[in-house]
Amino acid sequence: MIFSSQPMKKKYDSPDSLRSVGWTGARKMLLTSPGQPFRLQNGATLSEVEVEYEVYGDLHLAQDNVILIAHALSGDAHVAGWDSQTRVNGRIWRQSRPGWWDAVVGPGKAIDTERFCVICANVLGSCYGSTGPGSINPDSGKPYGLRFPSVSVADWVEMQRQLLDRLGIEHLYAVCGGSLGGQQALEWALRYPKRIGKCIVLASGPKLPAQGLGFNMVARHAIMHDKDFAGGDYYEGEPPRRGLEAARMLGHITYLSGKGMDKKFGRTRLAQDQGSGLFGTEFEVESYLRHQSRSFVQRFDANSYLYITRAMDRYDAAEAWGGGDLVRACRRITAEMLVVSFSSDWLYPPDECRNFVDAMLKAKLPVTYVELESNSGHDAFLVDTEPVGRLLRAFLLAPSRERKVAKH
Amino acid sequence: MIFSSQPMKKKYDSPDSLRSVGWTGARKMLLTSPGQPFRLQNGATLSEVEVEYEVYGDLHLAQDNVILIAHALSGDAHVAGWDSQTRVNGRIWRQSRPGWWDAVVGPGKAIDTERFCVICANVLGSCYGSTGPGSINPDSGKPYGLRFPSVSVADWVEMQRQLLDRLGIEHLYAVCGGSLGGQQALEWALRYPKRIGKCIVLASGPKLPAQGLGFNMVARHAIMHDKDFAGGDYYEGEPPRRGLEAARMLGHITYLSGKGMDKKFGRTRLAQDQGSGLFGTEFEVESYLRHQSRSFVQRFDANSYLYITRAMDRYDAAEAWGGGDLVRACRRITAEMLVVSFSSDWLYPPDECRNFVDAMLKAKLPVTYVELESNSGHDAFLVDTEPVGRLLRAFLLAPSRERKVAKH
Lengths: 408, 408
Prior knowledge:
Two copies of one chain form a homodimer.
Chain A: E1 27-30, E2 38-39, E3 45-46, E4 50-56, E5 66-70, E6 85-88, E7 91-95, E8 105-106, E9 111-112, E10 117-121, E11 136-137, E12 142-143, H1 153-166, E13 172-178, H2 180-191, E14 196-202, H3 210-224, H4 241-255, H5 258-264, H6 284-299, H7 302-314, H8 317-322, H9 326-330, E15 336-342, H10 350-362, E16 367-372, H11 380-383, H12 385-397
Parallel strand pairs in A: 5-10, 5-13, 8-9, 13-14, 14-15, 15-16
Antiparallel strand pairs in A: 1-4, 2-3, 4-10, 6-7, 11-12
């Protein structure tokens, strides 16, 4: 198998050909057909649903080496390697870009694509090729905007399952994700316990704590009150840039840690005032956040931000699977679990993760829990790739333990 | 001396009469006169500056019992008791309201107004009676808006000093403040070391860390990109409500702690959806933040928010007094220092406060440092009034230690 860090876009026409694929590049699959809509958890339907996905590495004939990776809020299917181009709501955003987890996924890397066949799909409601609020509603010929139905973490797992079914893949060696991706990994373990062997949840947990709910609300408030928001129907005019910038800057702060920001920026001032006087850009941290946010509005759809954060808010594994009782919910799980938290993550703080792990222990699950010391905050799962990679490699390669779970 | 929790507004015409005052109610003093403008640290001048202040308790003839309390971002001069009315930029906001630190300041309370004469003044740039961007610029007959000059923590201390000079008060028994008020207290200890005996810095420090700079920037971004901001000249139209709401919600989250929010709100849902569907108000924490922010825009001026957060950003005691060296700066201090940090405060985290205390110890200062365990976050200095009160009382009543500081 050849895997190159240079753009390598191949098109394969039949799912069978996946068996000899190195990297597929971005592919799309239509999950619906006339009379066969995509059914959401809340009862709504979408008559046309496409999913964009990428596949890395060869699929064993025994189908025993598939790892599904789930992306976080602003991620896409492009998890590794160099893309030839990235499209946002169909429009080319930029050429050639490394995958969002390229340091972890690839040949010889922690999630080794010489051994595993890695699949990653863009979530429903996003703007990177899968159907979302920026997609054309076939009933009206116009973008959905806020007429797009509410989506949930469970819908994303259903979408991934349908994709895998069509690719002829029944069993997942592992499912893995960080943050919102970790919620998807957990939902897989709860919803399809028999279809997965190992489950990796990084910087995530069974529910978003109140502080995260608050931050997400402020982000949506900023977007929805932007002068250009137009009730979500901004696709033919100016997008709500300023609101999405505020959301991204805010999000970015919550992904870092106080100590990490002190180390990276401190209170260093810019060489010269780059803004408009008193309230312009004066400190390096301001310049960084401004730059990040301006880049983000080029590559992300504000409506997708609304839908995906709401799905993140609403995810509650205990409520969905245990009538509010997390231990009861966890009794559904049969996968081997790895949970990794990061000391400076305050979106999913270690205390929360320990509660989750305690519930799994009470449910007598074989769970591995690691709390990594890090100043990288919530983003640690993306940036502390060396320690994270070591954990992933060890967990993935360890022989499966015999299950000794009491049946309830 | 009589102190009542009922409104008790008295007017006294001469500073001398302060000697027999219980509580003055809100008073104003004009600090400028023709040809005698208020001179700011950056060289700018204001031809008319008024300061609004309140005084509680009798001033001893020996003037040995004055405590100056400095307020935080959105505070005012009304620190204790029940006001008869509160005005925002001159407009009546509401009748009868308890002081922002009423649990701590008053007769028999931790800062005992039967023993001490407490003075609190609204900062320059605010909207509660002291001159600010919402005040009329005498040169144009219109509100200043963003033509108001940049103000600093040092300017606030200068304003307080001028007020005290005119009241005939040379010596402060103590100066005390939390958050931005703590920066003012520290600046007093550095700028006028001989005029103060004790200095109390709560949930604050010699500089705002990078994370706080980031949050303040997002808040200002939200205000300045509100469709009604009009470059700050919104006084005759709609104020930038939505932007100020975003700023306040964001601020509010940063004043609490994750654990505190989990305890207070968790993920409790409202009995019925109170908003407009998917992106409306669904969780209690959302309802709380929304309510807080809507109430805030009634009582605060968005331009003041810009000016005051920028002053908070720019305050840097080491830079101003030690050429970047905090130990050198601290050598100026002669006051006895009390520094209190709170375990869950992430605007001025305990680590930062310890650095500050270390610098003072290196400067051989007699400093008392207490780190209080609390889930109340940055707001702990306002809400954990029982433990904070005990510390303040003990520190204020302890006999002054003889100074054994080596002279440099």
